[in-house]
Amino acid sequence: MPVRVGLDAEFGLDNSTSAQAVELGMRTAIAEINRAGGVLGGRPVELITRDHRSIPARGIRNIEEFARMPDLVAVFGGRFSPVIIEELPTLKATRTLFMAPWSSADGIIDNDMHPNYVFRLSLRDSLAMPKLLQTAHKRGLGRVGLLLTNTSWGRSNLAAAEKFAATHKELSIVQTAWYNWRDQTLVARYQALRRAGAQAVILVANDDEAAVLVREVAALPKNERIPILSHWGVTGGEFVRQAGPALNQVDFSVIQTFSFFRADQKAVARFMASAAAISPVRRIEDIRGPVGVAHAYDLMHILAKAIDLAGSTDRKAVRDALEKLRQHRGLVKTYAPPFTATRHEALSSKELLIARYRADGVLVPTDD
To answer: Which tens digits make up the pLDDT trace of 66-100?
Structure first.
């Protein structure tokens, strides 16, 4: 009898690759777990996927379906924080254990659940915004404009940015501009920020809208192109393809929590061998959405250890066990411990790094 794990993510969304990245990380870990004998003394782990297409109502239905499945221990989520935030009441009502390997809105963990059934191995907006603001300041760009998506994710980032700026007077948020999902132009908002005195723009966007902005900024005169420091939603889709040659004409950086190029070589070699057995991945450059892949891989291994510690597929028992695990040597880092009763965030500011796209479209870490 298999032990089931669910994945509720944006598989059917045009140009998105994030759900597939999370799935690759999970399936690679599951292959290793099953090859080593599974969990609970020999039971294989089985992955069941559902597509919410980034639509909250679909996600809620998926969670309800997962909650009814026998021997389903936990559900992993995808990239989109607004979907997960809408799912939280259903997760709470059904006491469904939820694992977040990509989404970053603070409210996903800060959710008023007692006990809290949500665990995250991912970036958090209140870590991301300080890092982006500090990076701008380090580059001599102390006056920034915020260009934010008009969603709960955008509002989460605004709160984080304003809180940080309030205690760091060397930084100034000159203006905030908002855009809506699927907007076909963002350049007027960008220009408004620039005219307000912004030396750089901090962008909170997914791949589609970010590509629109990059193409529009590249078409401006050089003296009107200011640096863009981006949240990581852009890395979960076809951003490089959609931006095209314009990406090489714009100073564009993106925050990450992990890079295969800087990870422990033995851990990467093990991952690559396992991934190659179940996917077309042969080189680091083949990995799309690397943070989603690495986070999901580590989080799946941590969940498997918690299932064994619990000695059961009972969700509350596994939830309690996740808070008691002592250590896991993972791909992203060694977690010691991954979680505690008062900390359901596995990552911290120590893991944050800034990356840029090479001319071939591969995302690589920089030194700033």
So the answer is: 999 999 999 999 999 999 999 999 999 999 999 99
| Structure-token match 């996927």, residue found | 49
Per the structure block, which two tokens stand in for 45?
């782990």
Tokens of 93: 């009502």
Question: What does pTM read for this prediction?
Answer: 0.97
Residue 367 pLDDT exceeds 90: no
Q: What are 320-361's pLDDT values in tens digits? A: 999 999 999 999 999 999 999 999 999 999 999 999 999 999
**Between vectors from CA 216 to CA 212 and to CA 221, what angle results, nearest 5°?**
165
Angle at 70 between CA 37 and CA 4, to 5 degrees: 35
**Average pLDDT, rounded, for the chain:** 97
Token reading at 237: 């889709």
CB 56 within 8 A of CB 151: no
Contact call for residues 123 and 130 (beta carbons, < 8 A) = no
